[in-house]
Write a structure and sequence with these properties.
Structural class: alpha/beta
Mean pLDDT: 88
Largest sheet: 9 strands, mixed
Strand order of the largest sheet: 9-8-10-11-7-12-13-14-15
Distance between the termini: 47 Å
Number of helices: 9
Radius of gyration: 21 Å
Oligomer: single chain
Number of strands: 15
């Protein structure tokens, strides 16, 4: 298989910093390894968010500074976002009531090599539809991107990403190299995601569809249809644990539906397995999702295996 060209994170960050005015570029270069976000607001101090905290500069941002950056970027979409081809960086605009850009948020995107390797044998030995569960900011999308990297090595262009917010493969038209030769469909807005899911199914003959943030009723309805037609799906959903998903009426169809009295599953679960991501490096695998759902409904305890430790652990969340 021909390798997909890639570039280091350092080179990728340089591509973003090259869009900045010289004075901002010089400041950010001092913190390049620690840099997470740059906030530029009209007539307010430049603010850098770092892994170690944040830094407020004395010099304020001018309209010329904002115009300089704007002139070097692709046009912002209707969701006020844009990106740089082949990178994971995200640039978002703040507008005033006259629709003029008066602020910019430049989020540094970095690929974490091997983040999903711990899941490799579970994902590839017997390909199932997998639900990735976790609250915001625990690394679900990062893990999902790593999963795409694994899948694309084995299934190539039959892996199709429905990129809800361009978080998986980056905000440019050319996807980030980490997704290999998986294909990517962009979603114009959350309201369009159900239609794009069906477009992926009907137009591109996928073996696996990967989607970030299933949550709305129409998303879930179409996800059920896709899996029932024999296509596997890997998706993130919001929830602290599988128990939280069981209690979410919008997500219950993915689990097979729950009876009105909350005591039994009504039909087979759409997803074969679920992985709870509770924190960085803390993963709990429900290898048999149906069995775990039934356990939760029966007595509030779902069995999960902590695959980071390789030993059994009970999910003792109160349901």
């Amino acid at each position: 298989m021909t390798a997909v060209p890639n570039q280091s994170d350092a080179n990728s960050v340089e591509l973003l910093l090259a869009k900045l005015p010289l004075w901002i570029r010089e400041i950010t270069h001092q913190h390049i390894d620690d840099l997470e976000e740059i906030a530029m607001d009209l007539s307010r101090p430049l603010v850098l968010t770092l892994k170690s905290g944040f830094k407020i500069e004395k010099r304020v941002v001018s309209s010329d500074d904002i115009d300089y950056v704007k002139s070097r970027l692709e046009r912002f979409r209707t969701d006020n976002r844009t990106g740089i081809d082949g990178t994971l960086h995200r640039i978002s605009a703040i507008r005033n009531k006259r629709e003029q850009v008066i602020g910019l948020t430049l989020r540094i995107g970095r690929y974490i090599e091997g983040v999903a390797d711990i899941f490799q044998k579970h994902l590839l030995k017997d390909l199932k539809s997998v639900m990735l569960i976790g609250p915001p900011a625990v690394g679900k999308t990062t893990f999902l991107r790593g999963t795409v990297s694994l899948l694309s090595r084995h299934h190539g262009a039959k892996v199709v990403i429905v990129d809800s917010s361009n978080e998986i493969a980056g905000d440019g038209d050319i996807p980030h190299w980490s997704v290999g030769i998986a294909r990517r469909l962009q979603v114009p807005s959350p309201a369009h995601q159900p239609a794009v899911l069906m477009e992926a199914l009907t137009n591109h003959s996928p073996k696996v569809i990967v989607v970030d943030e299933l949550g709305y009723k129409d998303d879930v309805t179409n996800a059920v249809t896709i899996v029932q037609r024999g296509v596997k799906m890997i998706s993130t959903v919001h929830g602290e644990t599988l128990g939280g998903v069981v209690l979410n009426p919008d997500l219950q169809p993915l689990l097979g539906g729950i009876s009105a009295d909350g005591t039994k599953r009504l039909s087979p679960a759409v997803f074969g397995s679920a992985l709870e991501i509770r924190g960085r490096g803390e993963y709990y695998l429900h290898d048999d999702l149906q069995a775990s759902v039934d356990d939760i409904l029966n007595d509030g305890v779902g069995f999960a295996r902590n695959i980071s430790l390789g030993q059994p652990k009970l999910n003792m969340e109160v349901i």
